[in-house]
Write a structure and sequence with these properties.
CATH superfamily of one domain: FAD/NAD(P)-binding domain
Low-confidence stretches: 1-7
Mean pLDDT: 93
CATH architecture of one domain: 3-Layer(bba) Sandwich
Helix content: 25-40%
Oligomer: single chain
Number of helices: 15
CATH topology of one domain: FAD/NAD(P)-binding domain
Strand content: 25-35%
């Protein structure tokens, strides 16, 4: 095993704006966004070096747009391999190989990127850490462990010590602390936050390998719902593949986690020591859990510290990256004095409601896949095949839930709390995705008319002070809708103008003449104390 080279240690600052516990993708991305917003951030990671083997391996369009917003995609778009397949990219097949159902992972997405993609987590983590270290105000400290946090009226005191000893405790003063330290979160445990459980649990062997010969798979992901041996085959990034095998009652965890077992279970697919190089095998317990609280005072949870889910929909890391973006734009606005601390109260409810829908869907898929009783599996197969006789029913949409409630949005005929679009646009001689070409943290977009025609100068200046952009998109004009995505989105949603938040969720949408109301309601949501009397 080749370990990544160690970096020169950076001295711990004793006073920062935010301490992030956990140097995985969620913690690093949190630090990048906060650093880009002008905060001083210390990332604390207990391991001295990055984990060199794969873990998460799929990422969706929304999560890639989040990485795009951080500036990562400019030099690293090749880290991601888009889903391809004849029937939506994601298949459920029975023990006889018959197609039972498909999920349309290849559907057109709202975000301008392929709906689902494979990736190699060590490469993504390396790119994120490189970006974090290069971000002014951000420092990454490996080999330090979280011990405790005490809260006071204007912030927190974070107690740390070298990971190889519980002695030599040092203290950092910070306004906020974010616990992004994984499913066994020390931050969550220290705060005494309980977890709720879905009731689903199953042990699975995860095997990562590199094919030495060309392989031909009908789908990006295939779930083999075989009661004799449930299994998953998935494209896990450029040049790599993964198998997952459920533990049966007649097999111990130790027996399942043998290299010989991995080769034996992959052999029916022609994956042998002659055709593949084994990279990793490990047994995981798949379950669905979520924290009862995501915030205690000035301490927040994100990523696996806040939720874990079975991997059957590939949404674990995606949900963590959503957490990072949802939390950081709020913290940044409060730090700049552009928003009241009250906006932080909606972080947990929004994210909990969103992630619970995904956990429920993942658990439901897991119960289908993990059925070991032959008679119940046969009844399941018959029911799914009966539904599949309808050509429109065999392929269904993946979950794309709206934000949980209460949310920082304005009721807008069902569009609020849903993802806002990003399409390809042309401005002058430059063509690309809207966020790259036009930009903007907050976005006020009108289709066919410029939003500035409907509101006053003061409102526009206030919106731009938030980091917002105001633009008209049209089939021909200054910002040209190259592929017609915006025209379709506005038509499908029966609206003419939209305000999108920094995490790409719709704050409000409606007619052109509603724009002044959008901005008034947004100001009231961000600064309730200063606008209550207006």
């Amino acid at each position: 095993m080749t370990m990544p080279p160690a970096r020169t240690p950076v001295a711990l600052r004793r006073a920062v704006d935010c301490v992030v516990i956990g140097g995985g993708p969620v913690g690093l991305l949190t630090a990048v966004f906060l650093g880009q917003s002008g905060l001083r951030v210390a990332v604390i990671e207990r391991w001295p070096q990055r984990y060199p083997l794969p873990r998460a391996c799929t990422i969706d369009h929304e999560a890639i747009r989040i990485l795009q917003a951080a500036g990562l995609l400019a030099g690293h778009a090749d880290l991601f391999e888009p889903s391809q397949g004849e029937r939506g990219g994601y298949e459920f097949r029975n023990g006889a190989g018959e197609l039972l159902q498909a999920i349309d992972w290849n559907r057109a997405s709202e975000s301008g990127w392929a709906n689902t993609n494979g990736f190699y987590q060590p490469d993504l983590e390396a790119a994120l850490e490189e970006l974090a270290v290069a971000t002014p105000g951000v420092s990454v400290h490996r080999g330090w462990s979280f011990r405790a946090v005490t809260q006071h009226h204007d912030g927190v005191s974070v107690h740390l010590s070298p990971s190889d000893t519980s002695e030599d405790v040092v203290q950092i003063e910070s306004r906020w602390l974010v616990g992004a330290d994984g499913a066994n979160s020390a931050v969550r445990a220290h705060l005494g936050i309980g977890v709720q459980d879905s009731g689903f649990t199953a042990d699975w062997l995860v095997v990562d390998y590199q094919p030495l010969i060309e392989e031909n798979w009908s789908a990006f992901v295939t779930q083999y719902c075989d009661p004799a041996q449930p299994a998953t085959a998935v494209n896990s990034g450029p040049g790599r593949r993964r198998f997952e095998f459920m533990r049966r009652a007649d097999t111990t965890i130790d027996e399942l986690n043998q290299e010989s077992t991995a080769w034996r279970l992959m052999a029916p697919w022609g994956v042998t020591p002659e055709t593949a190089r084994l990279e990793r095998h490990a047994v995981y317990t798949f379950r669905g859990q979520w924290a009862q609280r995501w915030r205690v005072g000035n301490v927040f949870l994100a990523g696996d510290a806040a939720h874990v889910m079975p991997p059957f929909l590939g949404q674990g890391l995606c949900s963590g990256l959503r957490d990072a973006r949802a939390l950081t734009w709020r913290l940044a606005l409060v730090h700049r004095g552009c928003a009241s601390p009250a906006v932080l109260e909606s972080y947990g409810p929004e994210r909990t409601g969103h992630v619970l829908e995904i956990i429920d869907e993942a658990v439901a898929a897991g119960r289908v896949i993990c059925e070991l009783d032959a008679d119940r599996a046969a009844a399941r197969d018959a029911e799914m095949k009966d539904r599949a006789r309808d050509p429109h029913a065999v392929t269904r949409q993946p979950p794309h839930p709206r934000l949980g409630r209460p949310s920082l949005t304005m009721p807008s005929a069902g569009t609020d709390g849903r993802l806002a679009p990003q399409g390809r646009v042309r401005v002058g001689g430059r063509e690309g995705l809207f966020d790259d070409v036009v930009g903007g943290c907050w976005q006020l977009i009108g289709f066919g008319r410029h939003p500035a025609d409907f509101c006053g100068f003061d409102d526009l200046e206030w919106f731009r002070h938030l980091g917002g952009v105001v633009a008209e998109v049209s089939t021909q004009g200054e910002v040209e809708d190259v592929d017609g995505l915006y025209q379709r989105w506005f038509a499908d949603n029966g609206c003419q103008a939209v305000v999108a938040r920094p995490d790409f969720y719709v704050f409000a949408a409606g007619a052109h003449h509603d724009v002044p109301t959008f901005l008034t309601r947004l100001r009231q949501a961000l600064q309730p104390d200063t606008t209550a009397g207006e």
